[in-house]
Amino acid sequence: MTTTTTTTATLPPYPPPPTKLHLPRRSLLFLSATATTTTTLSLPSLSTASPPIKQPDTTITDRVFMDFSICPSYFQARTLGSDLASCPDSEPVGRIVLGLYGNLVPITVSNFKAMCTGVSGYYKGTLIQKIFPGRYFMAGRQGRRDKGEVKPPVNLVRNTESVEPKAFELGHTKGGVLSLCLSENDDEDDIKLDPDYHNVEFMITTGPGPCPDLDGRNIVFGSVLEGMDVVANISSIPTYKPGERVRQYNDLAEFIGDERAKSARAIWDRPQKTLYISNCGEVKVTKPTLSPSLP
Predict the structure, then answer these.
(1) DSSP 3-state of 132
(2) Using an 8 Å Cβ cutoff, are 129 and 186 in contact?
(3) For residue 257, how many other CB atoms are within 10 A of its CB?
(4) Can you say whether the dihedral through the CA atoms of 89, 81, 269, 276 is positive or negative?
(5) Half-sphere exposure of 102 toward its Cβ, with a 13 Å CA cutoff?
(6) CA 154, CA 88: separation in Å to the nearest integer?
(7) Whether this model's pTM surpasses 0.85
(8) Which helix (DSSP H) or strand (DSSP E) does residue 189 occupy?
(9) In this structure, which of 43, 67, 190, 263 has its CB flanked by the most CB atoms within 10 Å?
(10) Of 182, 258, 249, 176, which is closest to residue 214 (Cα–Cα)?
């Protein structure tokens, strides 16, 4: 005979019902105000403020001037050379005053100032090489003085700023921006290969719009303080523009390796008038430093 044993599970007793807490109305109001204050005070700790972006130092530390003129007789007397500044029938175009950012790029500013004052070279008596209407004009190309080009300077400081990121923080955002030509530099290759080569070619934007394609590739180191009307007059001077067929032939010649293609392009965008820097130098002022808006 089999005996069946029945096991009855014993369930734990139900928890007692929660005890109702009776608080006076004044206590409830106090607790509500405390919770709100705690939540409000803890909110700022949840957000992290981003650090402020440091703006480039565009303090004007130095000022230089440049006088521009046209020499109508230059093509009849190409032997003027270094005496181009003494052109007998010079026609003044006007003067511009440039403010330089010596705190941002001190080497670039120092070398440019030395070229304006004739300490290590001289822009005086050299040609404006190219004009791109509505964009910029270029000067300071090195080469032969009898061709109105800058004589290769000596005793300039080696410009290491051309590889420093901070030198490229400013952009060509408007007319009157002064920058050192790097990507647009057109000095001859044999000059660039000289161990003592110093790049002193510069450009000034003419406006009215920006030139974003120049940003990050050329060093902005100053701006025009006076004489934007002169810049506009320079921009309006006619330049040599080859026809479409000439451009096509030049592209073909370059494709097949004809070295004459590069020589032919050298005269493109050159002013049809002999525009040159008739004088330049440092502007002495009582208070040279000035903090303008970003260019």
Answers:
(1) strand
(2) yes
(3) 7
(4) negative
(5) 14
(6) 29
(7) no
(8) helix 189-192
(9) 67
(10) 182
E-state strands within 71-157? 91-100, 128-132, 136-139
Angstrom distance (rounded) from CA 205 to CA 219? 13
Please check whether residue 86 is in contact with residue 277, taking contact to mean a CB–CB distance below 8 angstroms.
Answer: no
Dist CA 292 CA 103 (whole Å): 13
Q: How far apart are CA 241 and CA 265, in angstroms?
A: 10
Element (H, E) at 27: helix 25-42
User: How deeply is 191 buried, as exposed, middle or buried, from its count of CB atoms within 10 A (0-12, 13-18, 19+)?
Assistant: middle
Contacts of 205 (CB under 8 A, 6+ apart): 135, 136, 172, 174, 175, 176, 177, 179, 211, 214
- Which helix or strand (DSSP H or E) is residue 70 part of? strand 62-70
Sequence-separated (6 or more) residues with CB below 8 Å from residue 148: 74, 81, 84, 125, 126, 127, 274, 276
What pLDDT was estimated at residue 39? Answer: 45
Question: Which regions of the chain are under pLDDT 70?
Answer: 1-51, 75-83, 85, 286-295
- Residue pair 78/205 in contact (Cβ under 8 Å)? The answer is no
User: Rounded distance, CA 249 to CA 15, Å?
Assistant: 99
Tokens representing residue 83 in the block: 């005496």
